Amino acid sequence: MALLVLKFGGTSVADIDRIRNVAAHVKREVDDGHACAVVVSAMAGQTNQLVAWVEQAWGFKERQKKNGGEASAQYDGREYDAVVSSGEQVTSGLLALVLQSLGMRARSWQGWQIPLHTDTAHRAARITGLAVDELRARMTEGEVAVIAGFQGIAPGNRISTLGRGGSDTSAVALAAALGAERCDIYTDVDGVYTTDPRVVPKAHRLDRISYEEMLEMASQGAKVLQTRSVELAMQRGVRVLVRSSFDPPDLGGKKHAEPGGGLGTLVCHEDEIVEQNVVSGIAYARDEAKVTLLKIADKPGVAAQVFCPLAEANINVDMIVQNVSEDGRYTDLTFTVQSADLDRALEVLRKAKDQIGYLDLRGSTDIAKVSAIGVGMRSHAGVAAQMFSALAEKGINIEAISTSEIKISVLIDAAYAELAVRTLHSLFGLDSR
Amino acid sequence: MALLVLKFGGTSVADIDRIRNVAAHVKREVDDGHACAVVVSAMAGQTNQLVAWVEQAWGFKERQKKNGGEASAQYDGREYDAVVSSGEQVTSGLLALVLQSLGMRARSWQGWQIPLHTDTAHRAARITGLAVDELRARMTEGEVAVIAGFQGIAPGNRISTLGRGGSDTSAVALAAALGAERCDIYTDVDGVYTTDPRVVPKAHRLDRISYEEMLEMASQGAKVLQTRSVELAMQRGVRVLVRSSFDPPDLGGKKHAEPGGGLGTLVCHEDEIVEQNVVSGIAYARDEAKVTLLKIADKPGVAAQVFCPLAEANINVDMIVQNVSEDGRYTDLTFTVQSADLDRALEVLRKAKDQIGYLDLRGSTDIAKVSAIGVGMRSHAGVAAQMFSALAEKGINIEAISTSEIKISVLIDAAYAELAVRTLHSLFGLDSR
Questions:
Q1: Is B205 in CB contact (< 8 Å) with chain A?
Q2: Over 80: is that where the pLDDT of A3 sits?
Q3: In whole numbers, what is the pLDDT of chain A averaged over residues?
Q4: Is the pLDDT reported for residue A201 higher than 60?
Q5: If we measure between CA atoms, which residue out of A394, A433, A385, A429 comes closest to residue A412?
Q6: Who among B56, B79, B96 is closest to A93 (CB)?
Q7: Chain B residue closest in CA terms to A103
Q8: What sign has the CA pseudo-torsion A325, A327, A328, A329?
Q9: Of B19, B86, B108, which has the smallest distance from its Cβ to A79's Cβ?
Q10: How near does any CA of chain B get to the CA of A151, in Å?
């Protein structure tokens, strides 16, 4: 017998039929003798409805209009959390009922019942503690624990939520606290792919991926797992299996969904990955925008004058390139921000024009960021050079570069994004054979 | 300053605009310097949706079909309560947000946060205790307490609910515990009427009605207040004002909604009612059905043989009439049950035919129960006689009679229900002048 945590997202519990399908997956594990905790999200669409009501209640649009487009989301996060957490509450009770109807013992657990303690950062709270003694005792006695994901209880006895995608984090935290054998994240895809299969039909599912690579994949736009849940899994050594809830519950005759057995992608420590590629995946993101400041003074302190007001406005800057100054006096500065922040970023820089001192300011969203990711890079020189040459051969101009130990990202014209992804996917031997 | 409890039902909080209207009513009371607790139901339609999901999850219809029409609702009440209570949770958070958006201090309270303790009779739990110290302290400091009605917390730390219409009971219990000046029940009608205005256009709103009369009105089909809430109000001496949430929040210029001031109906102790009518209202119900057993033995013990199996099947019997035996050996027995229970009642009696011994069994739903209600009856003789004569004059045959200290009910052919109600309404001087 093993302790397992199973997590099902919104599309996997979208209606009662889908919840029945979830129950069939749970039944398979129970019949195999495993003690199960099941973490559920809200039924697809419910969270959006609840958030829309909250914004209507607060008069969000009216305030936005009044403040000239500036979003004033200063409503009470505690009330937001009370409203929005109800979605997971509903699913947890419904799944417990379906499990019971199939003859299993089951009960639902809300965040405050476990309790799963968080800090008071409502709407994006962090887990501070998790009591699992009673849960574990009941689970080992054969009762399935159905846990409302995404929610916890904050000091002051108020309901808190962990932010969008927070159910992944609930599941990983629970698996860590329980010392679970594995945390299975059931989703609407059957694993993590070498790249987006819609762009590269030859993309293939990875049997295993390291935490570090998964983190880079996630933050690069492969939206399978919430980034925080991967960080937590890495910290606590939780083995996470990303798999599909759309697989037949009997697994097409396969008895187990053991990692490497051909089902899902195991996110694990790199030591567990025997056959390592230099590059494991190609990620791309189109939601960044480029800002260029022309002819700013090339002297100490000017970068701070640009980036401090942006930080104060809570705008995250990603890639930064400063050209070599030709005359030693002026230079151009380019950086990227999230597309959603572009207008605000330009506004902030326009207001600070006199302090910074620049000739012109330009913004553009016609860019894409393409990244090659792999822990094997650490021990392989020349990956960047290979990558730049291959792109150059296709006539793709690189506007900016950023690198980490296990990642090389380039900023290119958005029109070439798919071509670049396909080129790199082939280059690093990822096309399925 | 007074402590007030305001309760708003599902149609009063049906969408965000309606919730804004509720907030305007609350603001009026806050501006008048009152400390307010507001109890809310789920948005209209939400509870039905949640119950439908629960029944689907449990496979209710499939089980019903399998068991030959017998409804097997043996699902886990604790999970039902976890799911269904979420409706009130949502409304409480939304109203708190709207109140905050209007500049008021407000917070939502779930049953488990107050806590409002109940027994473990999930789906229809009874309140066993209610802690109001923190609530009262915050209310007197000017914070509006927005309370999710209908729900509490049962031993074992599980969410419980109080049964349909339970938010009325939440509100009255809270008013009792707080020692509130008044409990205002805002609904979609502007008070309690002498009878159903759709049947008798001359029906008028009562300024005041006694608890006892209201109990009879409620159980007779005037569905304004949950019966349990009236019982509780009577026990604890809570003055309940039934009023309309559709009234303009500024009350059309009237400063206060004081009882007797022309707004709503105050449900109170009869001592508070100065001008008492002999009859205060005429109620009618069409949801009863008549069962007749022909030619049963006229001997001791036969009634027990009829009613014991019905009681075992959880079928409530209301009126009972046994004809005088003509030959001393056989008689006919007639009684009423809820229409919804008729088929089950007939089935039970068919199965028990050999033990009971009867010639024939008949069931009919073409009946109506019409009642005259008034505390004044206690001191007035001849009310029944007046009532029977008036009905006889109209050619209405009385099939059965039941009486209490303050009520006379007759069972008649359903076709004459409206005529009977109008006749009695005039007879007892209730037509509006």
A1: no
A2: yes
A3: 90
A4: yes
A5: A394
A6: B79
A7: B58
A8: negative
A9: B108
A10: 14
- Beta strand B127-130 pairing with B151-154: unpaired
Query: Is residue B248 scored above 80 in pLDDT?
Result: yes
SS (H, E, C) chain B: CCEEEEEECHHHHCCHHHHHHHHHHHHHHHHCCCEEEEEECCCCCHHHHHHHHHHHHHCHHHHHHHCCCCCCCCCCHHHHHHHHCHHHHHHHHHHHHHHHHCCCCEEEECCCCCCEEECCCCCCCCEEEECCHHHHHHHHCCCEEEEECCEEEECCCEEEECCCCHHHHHHHHHHHHHCCCEEEEEECCCCCECCCCCCCCCCCECCEEEHHHHHHHHHCCCCCCCHHHHHHHHHHCCCEEEEECCCCCCHHHCCCCCCCCCCCEEEECHHHCCCCCCCCEEEEECCEEEEEEEEEECCCCHHHHHHHHHHHCCCCEEEEEECCCCCCCEEEEEEEEEHHHHHHHHHHHHHCHHHHCCCEEEEECCEEEEEEECHHHHHCCCHHHHHHHHHHHCCCCEEEEEEECCEEEEEEEHHHHHHHHHHHHHHCCCCCC
Given CB atoms, is A16 within the 8 Å cutoff of chain B? yes
Tell me how crowded residue B287 is: count the other CB atoms within 10 A of its CB: 11
pLDDT at residue A433, as a whole number: 65
Domains and CATH numbers, chain B: 3-272 (3.40.1160.10), 276-433 (3.30.2130.10)
CA B197 to chain centre: 18
Q: Does B110 touch chain A (CB under 8 A)?
A: yes
Angle at B116 between CA B191 and CA B214, to 5 degrees: 25
Q: How far is A40 from chain B (nearest CA, A)?
A: 14
Question: Which whole number is the average pLDDT over B325-339?
Answer: 85
Question: Which letter does DSSP use for residue A340 in this model?
Answer: G
Test the B interface: residue of A97, A134, A147, A151 with most B CBs within 10 Å? A97
Tell me which chain B residues have a C-beta less than 8 angstroms from the C-beta of A150: none
Q: List the structure tokens of B218.
A: 């409620």
Q: What is the pLDDT of residues B334-389, one digit of tens each?
A: 999 999 999 999 999 999 998 888 999 999 999 999 999 999 888 888 899 999 99
pLDDT score recorded for residue A382: 87
Lowest mean pLDDT among A192-196, A370-374, B77-81, B260-264: B260-264
d(CA B149, CA B185): 12
